[in-house]
Specification:
By secondary structure, the protein is α+β, with helices and mostly antiparallel strands. Helix content is 18%, strand content 21%. Strands 1-9-6-11-4-3-2 form a seven-stranded antiparallel sheet. A four-stranded antiparallel sheet has the order 5-10-7-8, with no helix packed on it. It binds succinic acid (SIN) and nickel (II) ion (NI). The site of nickel (II) ion has 3 residues, from loops.
Length: 260
């Protein structure tokens, strides 16, 4: 089922290209949502696999995000979603790229109790890529609003390049960065969504997620896609360290499959 293509409307595509993000409701069905919740619950507890838990209970990062990277490498059910044509083809339509490759997935849980917001940041500065264009789908597994960690985006901020990455635990204020002038957090769009809906955002779009003030985890699955041909910058990253990728050559191969 997840192999079916979804034809996005011209207005969704135009909105994404103009503003750097777009909301797409009901990207998965109620049955698929139930399945994905089950798989995510299973894979979050894996030990000694190929996915990487990048935060541990008790450390400061965990209060921002309880995060596991590359769940698809440990769980066939997660792989069905992460490698699915439906999401990757939507990314292809939005970006206009000829082909789309997987960079990585990550489960993003915002845990209850002492939850911290995900500070304003761009994603692209974390990635070892020379070109911009990579982007994420962020699928809500719970209904989200300001009380449990919904996202906000600053429209048109995807045009801002060359900023330093923001440390998610000890953030600096991205709006004070030289090069971010004209960007205004008061213009941010708050995206409240039902579980099973999603947003796509460009790797350069400024975004933020509220702290989770409820008693339940806020569960999300994000998948990062890059235009086929995106080249490796040589910078260090959990998903590329140790792979002997060649600087300035395309990121490709079986760990970064072409999906659309
Ligand atoms: C979050 O899920 O809280 C943040 C996601 C992101 O930064 O892309
Ligand atoms: Ni982000």
């Amino acid at each position: 089922m997840l192999d079916n293509r979804l034809t996005l409307s011209e207005s969704q595509i135009n909105y994404y290209r103009e503003n750097g993000f777009v909301q797409v409701d009901n990207i998965i069905s109620a049955e698929e949502l139930a399945e994905l919740r089950e798989y995510l619950g299973e894979v979050m507890g894996v030990e000694g696999g190929n996915s990487v838990q990048t935060s541990k209970k008790g450390n400061a990062y965990f209060n921002v995000l309880n995060q596991r990277v590359n769940t698809w490498r440990d769980h066939g059910g997660m792989a069905r979603f992460v490698l699915s044509r439906r999401f990757a083809d939507a990314a292809r339509q939005l970006t206009g790229a000829d082909g789309i490759r997987l960079f990585h997935d990550h489960a993003l849980f915002k845990m209850p109790q002492d939850s911290k917001p995900t500070p304003w940041h761009q994603d692209w500065p974390y990635w070892p890529m020379n070109e911009s264009g990579a982007m994420s789908i962020w699928i809500a597994l719970d209904d989200v609003d300001e009380n449990n960690g919904c996202m906000m985006f600053v429209p048109k901020s995807q045009k801002i390049k060359n900023l330093k990455h923001v440390d998610l635990v000890e953030p600096h204020d991205i709006f004070s960065d030289e090069g971010a002038s004209g960007m205004d957090r008061n213009q941010a769009v708050i995206v409240r969504m039902k579980a099973g809906s999603c947003t796509f955002h460009d790797g350069l779009t400024f975004h933020y997620a509220h702290a989770n003030q409820t008693d339940n985890p806020r569960r999300a699955l994000a998948i990062i896609y890059m235009p086929d041909g995106t080249t490796f910058s040589g910078a260090s990253h959990t998903c590329t360290d140790g792979l002997n990728l060649v600087k300035d050559q395309p990121i490709r191969g079986g760990l970064f499959p072409k999906l659309a």
